[in-house]
Amino acid sequence: MDIMTGKQSIQFPEAPHILCSASVVGKKEGEGPLGNQFDLICEDPMFGEDSWEKAESTMQAEAAQTALGKAGLLPSQIRYIFAGDLLGQLIATSFGVESLDIPVFGLYGACSTCGEALSLAAMTVSAGYADHVLAMTSSHFGGAEKQFRFPLEYGNQRPLSATWTVTGSGAFVLSRTGGHARITGVTTGKVVDYGVKDSLNMGACMAPAAADTIYQNFMDFNRQPEDYDRIITGDLGYVGQTILIDLLKEKGFDITKQHMDCGIEIYDRETQDTHAGGSGCGCSAVTLSALILPKLAKGSLKRVLFVPTGALLSTISFNEGQSVPGIAHGVVMEHC
Amino acid sequence: MDIMTGKQSIQFPEAPHILCSASVVGKKEGEGPLGNQFDLICEDPMFGEDSWEKAESTMQAEAAQTALGKAGLLPSQIRYIFAGDLLGQLIATSFGVESLDIPVFGLYGACSTCGEALSLAAMTVSAGYADHVLAMTSSHFGGAEKQFRFPLEYGNQRPLSATWTVTGSGAFVLSRTGGHARITGVTTGKVVDYGVKDSLNMGACMAPAAADTIYQNFMDFNRQPEDYDRIITGDLGYVGQTILIDLLKEKGFDITKQHMDCGIEIYDRETQDTHAGGSGCGCSAVTLSALILPKLAKGSLKRVLFVPTGALLSTISFNEGQSVPGIAHGVVMEHC
User: Fold this and answer.
1) Among partner residues B54, B89, B327, which is closest to A110 by beta-carbon distance?
2) Which residues contact B43 (CB under 8 A, 6 or more apart)?
3) Which partner from A324, B39, B60, B88 sits 20 to 30 angstroms from A317, CA to CA?
């Protein structure tokens, strides 16, 4: 199979390894179903800082240091960081990675950024541009609400279609060898815009992009849903999940059995009152690190398609009446 | 020489070619010293749209289509877009590339994004992940002032250290063959923070990052300033240029003879009242396309180090009293 596979995928001749990863989350995430699987749960939503934004930077720095610690690597052994967050001009990342003194590629793909970071990191290691790289994303409930909707103090009501931004950061060390999971291919997403304008229904904004990328992945690799043990979207939540499954059925694929969504996994629907599920750059990252990679490492999952989903929303474009386009980046991971 | 060169550089075994490029600018840029070299000058600052942000998206779409037209390529022949802008959540890019229907990696490195886009695009083509990719950035004076400082209607006074955000977009088609300039290496920058907090003195915020990347490029490639015909920063302007030259002198390198700054080249200091020079994601992009690449193609420049410079500023971090860190990405381009 060619390196350039199909219309928008890459099959790596030398698949990079996910050497190790780390997840750092807030209190609410720690109280959820994955609570005992995260590396670090911080009870203080400010992470000891005096603003939500600084808290998120601290969370990123903690995630990076924890991942490096597990890998037994010093920051100086990491050649590049691929990282991003949801805040305007990526301030969580800029201030979060500053002290690591590592060359950095700043990325933005809304909540799909984890897929974008893992894709570019894998491309970089596989091409021989680096021995070790770090891929990392984060989000923070307080910072995201302030950025995109209303400050928490305002106490606005949330419709049932709304998702809850995960306070969390996931970091991944990709290397030429080591670990028990590899990235064997990627399918890079396009901007997909069905004209949805509801900033409190991110699932509906992103589902068409997820469907587009998953469908393209099937085409490019000549695969069926059954070729994956799980097809894992980032943060579609319950609303987006329904739309995604419908859209793919229209294209002739039924992923009901394989589909899993990080936004659905991370909170308990009955007790945690998060409405449609979790979301944010950190949602798919911490769920990948805490729930999925351990299963890939054990071999209870052999091959998954990981598809973080992003809603390309900004308050400026929203207030000017524009739609919320979506994007989703697919990453194929296999047990090794 | 190894692919991984020194601490933070790559030397491409198969250097990708810059097949062609395009520049689209606004009225003020068209009245400047490079006026007759741009591909398209739009007299209407709104580019026929009803907001600055939509204007910027239209400008990106125009730049992309112009570059593709020169290359004789259809959008479907471009495998990936690497693009970004200065607006929160990259809305100029999201809406600008939507209609092209090409897989996209969204990037943010403030005004260094052009260097980040060219670096990742070059890495992608050289590794065999794509035959043709598009690297693109943009900025718009109206949108940037609204985003970072004051709305134009407020009519605030600007200090002499302030730069003027360029209304412009540059697009570059990178391919395995063709054209008369190649990207032979890249030096990826780190976040460098000297603690400067003045959002109206971007030159001072970015100069330390530029010095760091240029110094590292000299170390990694074992080069001296004389090994480059020009060392071209993105938008340091007059204030940043002085600081950069001083910082590199402290490290033992005098780049006075080689240094050139896109922010200084693009406006006329005497007649255009832009104070410290031009800035923005579009500044280095359109200057590279209109002024530098033609000289590389003719061979009047043989080898240049192109170093777009970014100030990692957001109104949120600024209002919370944080500093403005800088980042700069180096791209080595040679005549071929």
Assistant:
1) B89
2) B27, B30
3) B39
Tell me the residue type at B96. Answer: G
Q: Give the CA angle between residues B29, B31, B34 to the nearest 5°.
A: 65
**A169: which 2 tokens?**
């950061």
Are B106 and A102 inside 8 Å of each other by CB? no
Is residue A105 within 8 Å of residue B84, measured between CB atoms? Answer: no
What would the pLDDT profile of B200-229 be if each residue is shown by its tens digit? 999 999 999 999 999 999 999 999 999 999
Per-residue pLDDT of chain A (336 residues; tens, 9 = 90+): 689 999 999 999 999 999 999 999 999 999 999 999 999 999 999 999 999 999 999 999 999 999 999 999 999 999 999 999 999 999 999 999 999 999 999 999 999 999 999 999 999 999 999 999 999 999 999 999 999 988 888 888 899 999 999 999 999 999 999 999 999 999 999 999 999 999 899 999 999 999 999 999 999 999 999 999 999 999 999 999 999 999 999 999 999 999 999 999 999 999 999 999 999 999 999 999 999 999 999 999 999 999 999 999 999 999 999 999 999 999 999 999
Q: Does A317 reach chain B within 8 Å, measured CB to CB?
A: yes
3-state secondary structure of B76: helix
Flag whether residue B1 sits within 8 Å of chain A, measured between CB atoms: no
Q: Give the tens place of pLDDT for each residue, B85-114.
A: 999 999 999 999 999 999 999 999 999 999
Give chain B positions within 8 Å (CB) of A90.
108, 312, 314
Q: Is residue B1 pLDDT above 70, yes or no?
A: no
DSSP element (H, E) containing A48? none
DSSP at A253: -
Give the helix/strand (H/E) hosting A175.
strand A168-175
- Between positions 91 and 120 of B, the ones with CB within 8 A of A are 91, 94-95, 97-98, 101-110, 116, 119-120
Residue B311's CB is within 10 A of a number of other CB atoms, namely: 27
DSSP A180: S
Pairwise CA distance, residues A222 & B197, whole Å: 53
A130: which chain B residues are within 8 Å (Cβ-Cβ)?
Answer: 4
Q: Does residue A239 sit at the B interface (CB-CB below 8 Å)?
A: no
Point out which residues pair with A8 in neighbouring strands.
none
Q: For residues A86 and A90, give the distance between their C-alpha atoms in angstroms, rounded to a whole number.
A: 7
Nearest Cβ partner for B191 among A94, A124, A147: A94
Burial letters for A187-214: b for 16+ Cβ neighbours within 10 Å, e otherwise? bbbbbbbbebeebbbbbbbbbbbbbbbb
Task: Give A49-113 as a DSSP string.
Answer: SSSHHHHHHHHHHHHHHHHHHHHT--GGG--EEEEE-SSGGGHHHHHHHGGG---EEEB-BTBTH
CB proximity B304 to A under 8 Å: no
